[in-house]
Amino acid sequence: MRHSRPEANRGRLGERGGPRRRAVPLLRLEDEGGSAVVEFVFLGVLLLVPVVYLVLTVGQLQGGSFAVVGAADQAAKVYVDATTPQEADARAREAARIALADFGFGPEQAEVDIACSGDCLAPGTTVAVVVRLEVPLPLVPAIAGTHPSAATVDATSTQIVERFG
User: How many CB atoms lie within 10 A of CB 58?
Assistant: First the structure.
């Protein structure tokens, strides 16, 4: 019968006397108490605020784009339907003001230009209305007469005065 020494079996895996593992020191959880929550909240706020402001600004620009398109279209339609050029001008500017107000923009932010291809309100002439709007930055107040704007948007609409009224 063959006898082996226990020291000879220590190098082999799967046998009882194999190499011993060293104990790995465990990290104490008390040392990290609550720092993950603080980091998450800090980074969340730090990244979320600019993203929310960007979304607000893009929404404001989109609203301004819709407002100028509607204002120019309605102003041109109202202009060609009037009987006198003075009435047409007043009605077109009022229609543009109402269309801009529907989207939350004031008349001081917009500029309305009306141009005729010939004698205004003569049958067959074209009337072009251009509406320009300074879209303000959201949540930024006007300071000392300055109006910080995100962009200027504009739209043009052209209508033909009917030949047969």
Answer: 12
